[in-house]
């Protein structure tokens, strides 16, 4: 029995070393880091936030494009019901004036009729009924009244807000994958404990079988051990089912091959929290602050409606034949637009933005309070998990000693096999508690790092 006791003690120490090497901080193994990156790449929520950021970036380019000159080519054909001409009196006046000019040019007296052989130029139409036009227009905003500047600034802050929200979504993905990965490690650690119990059940089977031959035990004792072994087989089946389920969840989160995930064998490394004084602003808070800044520039953009705008406009006609007598071939002009009163639309729109900004300020305050509360909660959970691990280690020590004592009593016919199996079950449960306490400790440290904004992956 002393040999068995020594082997059991060594095995328990090996389990403690296997599942709980202590690290100074949250150190994620490379395989987990790779899974997190694959999960981030697969995440639809992250993709949506990145698309929102890209849209905000495009809005900036659209706003800046206001200052680029707009050149438009135009072409048209129009047929009127008739030519547009001068009135009869005006035409007669123009012809008479033409005759006077000819007389003066050739030296004919004013009162002498102009010879009929002298040709006269017909009075042109104001506009021919067939009109074919081809032209180019230029419109160029020279000053937008700071509207473009404020619009670009608003879009820049919106883009930053979307980037921070994308990082916040990445944190959520990382937290979920870390949780499932740790659950898988807990399942494997549980299998180690089950294997240890199974080995000692096998030893008990051999011992009781020999004891029956010498009349020191009954077949009922052996059947009780066999029942315990069947129960152990059910626990191994539960292990395989839990492993399969967690691998399926990891596959859905990361899109990694199930066959590759099945080869993983994560371990529960114990974390210690050495960053109690380090707190960084969370991405969610940064996103809300950027939205508030975007609203500030949006308000300025609305108010700039009352600042004068300056633009240049130009026009050039490629075809001159069908132009009316009043149409210019080209022109260039500079115009000013100045809104003096818009029916209170600007004032009301600006007031609406201010109200919206106040709403986001309240959200920032609320989120900050909730984060501070989550930090306190995570710190308490971490302290509790450390204390719980110490308690469980004592429980393992007590369960181990109790098992050896009961085993010796059974060897000397001072107790029943039921007490031996109960003692062995206590050892198994104590090991489960230790593994679960390590899992809870890792969860507490991960949540604490996330609450403090220092989750690294």
N-to-C terminal Cα separation, in Å?
Answer: 49 Å
Radius of gyration: 45 Å
Strand order of the largest sheet: 2-3-5-6
| Percent helix | 55-70%
CATH class: Mainly Alpha
Mean pLDDT: 86
Whole-number tally of structural domains: 1
Give me the secondary-structure category. Answer: alpha+beta
Number of strands: 6
Describe it.
The chain is 66% helix and 10% strand. It has ten helices and six strands; from the N terminus they run H-E-H-H-E-H-E-H-H-H-E-H-E-E-H-H. It has helices at 2-19, 30-42, 44-64, 88-106, 147-213, 219-254, 258-262, 283-303, 345-411, 417-451; strands spanning 22-23, 70-79, 130-143, 270-271, 309-317, 330-337. It has one domain (2-68, 146-306, 345-451): Outer membrane efflux proteins (OEP) (Up-down Bundle). The strands form two sheets. A four-stranded antiparallel beta sheet has the order 2-3-5-6, with no helix packed on it. The relative contact order is 0.15. It has 457 residues and is an alpha+beta fold.
List keywords for this structure.
single chain; 457 residues; alpha+beta; Outer membrane efflux proteins (OEP); four-stranded antiparallel sheet; two-stranded parallel ribbon; 10% strand; disordered N terminus
């Amino acid at each position: 029995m002393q040999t068995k006791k020594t082997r059991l003690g060594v095995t328990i120490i090996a389990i403690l070393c296997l599942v709980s090497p202590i690290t100074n901080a949250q150190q994620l193994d490379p395989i987990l880091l790779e899974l997190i990156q694959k999960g981030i790449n697969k995440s639809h929520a992250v993709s949506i936030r990145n698309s929102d950021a890209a849209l905000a970036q495009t809005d900036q380019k659209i706003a800046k494009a206001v200052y680029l000159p707009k050149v438009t080519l135009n072409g048209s054909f129009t047929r009127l019901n008739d030519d547009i001409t001068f009135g009869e009196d005006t035409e007669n006046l123009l012809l008479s004036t033409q005759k006077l000019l000819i007389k003066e040019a050739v030296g004919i007296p004013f009162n002498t009729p102009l010879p009929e052989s002298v040709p006269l130029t017909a009075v042109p139409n104001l506009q021919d009924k067939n009109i074919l036009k081809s032209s180019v227009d230029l419109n160029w905003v020279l000053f937008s009244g700071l509207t473009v500047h404020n619009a670009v600034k608003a879009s820049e802050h919106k883009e930053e807000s979307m980037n921070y929200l994308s990082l916040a979504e990445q944190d959520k993905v990382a937290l979920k994958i870390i949780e499932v990965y740790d659950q898988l490690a807990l399942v494997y650690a549980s299998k180690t404990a089950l294997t240890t119990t199974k080995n000692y059940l096998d030893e008990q089977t051999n011992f009781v079988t020999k004891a029956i031959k010498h009349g020191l035990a009954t077949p009922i004792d052996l059947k009780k051990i066999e029942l315990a072994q069947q129960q152990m087989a059910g626990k191994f089946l539960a292990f395989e089912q839990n492993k399969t389920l967690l691998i399926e969840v990891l596959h859905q989160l990361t899109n990694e091959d199930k066959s590759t995930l099945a080869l993983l064998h994560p371990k529960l490394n114990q974390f210690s929290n050495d960053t109690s004084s380090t707190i960084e602003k969370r991405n969610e808070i940064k996103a809300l602050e950027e939205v508030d800044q975007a609203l500030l520039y949006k308000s300025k953009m609305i108010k700039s409606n009352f600042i004068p705008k300056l633009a240049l406009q130009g026009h050039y006609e490629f075809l001159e034949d069908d132009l009316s007598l009043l149409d210019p071939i080209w022109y260039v002009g500079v115009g000013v637009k100045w809104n003096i009163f818009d029916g209170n639309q600007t004032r009301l729109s600006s007031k609406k933005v201010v109200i919206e900004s106040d709403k986001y300020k309240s959200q920032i305050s609320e989120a900050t309070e909730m984060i501070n509360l989550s930090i306190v909660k995570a710190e308490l959970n971490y302290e509790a998990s450390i204390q719980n691990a110490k308690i469980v280690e004592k429980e393992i020590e007590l369960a181990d000693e109790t098992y050896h004592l009961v085993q010796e009593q059974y060897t000397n016919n001072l107790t029943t096999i039921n007490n031996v199996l109960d003692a062995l079950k206590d050892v198994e449960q104590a090991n489960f508690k230790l593994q679960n306490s390590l899992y809870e400790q890792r969860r507490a440290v991960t949540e604490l790092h996330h609450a403090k904004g220092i989750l690294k992956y």
